Amino acid sequence: MKDKNKKVDSKALEAELKILREELAKKDDCQDKLLRLQAEFDNFRKRSFKEKQEFIKYANEGLVLDLVGMLDNFERSIKAADQKKDFKLLHQGVDMVARQLHKLLEEKGLKKIKSVGEKFDPNKHEAIEVVDSEDAEEGQILDELQPGYMLNERVIRPAMVKVVKSKEEEPEIKEQESQKAEEQEQKDQKEKEEE
Asked: pLDDT for 130-150, tens place per residue?
């Protein structure tokens, strides 16, 4: 009877051993798959980073090519004016290049901020000088010292302007400007964090 129990036990042990070996093989297979997936993910991440760097490196290629064409025109106008000693010809060439440049930048989403005659907006304007005026309303922009620009509805450079002051409004304009500067700092901080 002991021999029979030993046979049963050995058969049961062999069956259990076989099951354990199969489970071990499955575990090894899963571990192998996991290692392959990790390697694939690392390769994907490296490839994505490299592609992103390449994109950033050449993102402005089209714009630069357009600018090179304008540079060629600019150099041709200087050369022609030099050869003929004609200031009018030089002026015409520079004017043509300036028009081309404005057109190109507008096509790329650049828009000049309207200032003179407009109401001061601290989000679009930077008050460089506050002046008295009887002919204009308080807070109205009298003069633009440097144009401001927006790129696709985002202010990339505020216009530097002269604003009509009021005794009550001058502190308000200064407060608006400090608030604008604070908002810009927060916006810049957010962009840095997102990068």
From this structure: 988 877 788 899 999 999 999
Nearest to 96 by CA among 71, 64, 115: 71
Which of 107, 142, 169 represents a domain boundary (last residue)? 107
Tens digit of pLDDT for each residue in 56-82? Answer: 888 888 888 888 888 888 888 888 888
Question: Is residue 25 assigned to a domain?
Answer: no
Sheet with 141-146, side-by-side order of all strands: 125-131, 159-164, 141-146
Judgement on whether residues 130 and 183 belong to the same structural domain of the protein:
yes
Its pTM stands at 0.55
Question: What region does 109 belong to: left with phi over 0, alpha with psi -120 to 50, or beta?
Answer: left
Query: Torsions phi, psi of 145, nearest 5?
Result: -85, -30
Domain range for 154 is 113-194
Question: DSSP code of 119?
Answer: B
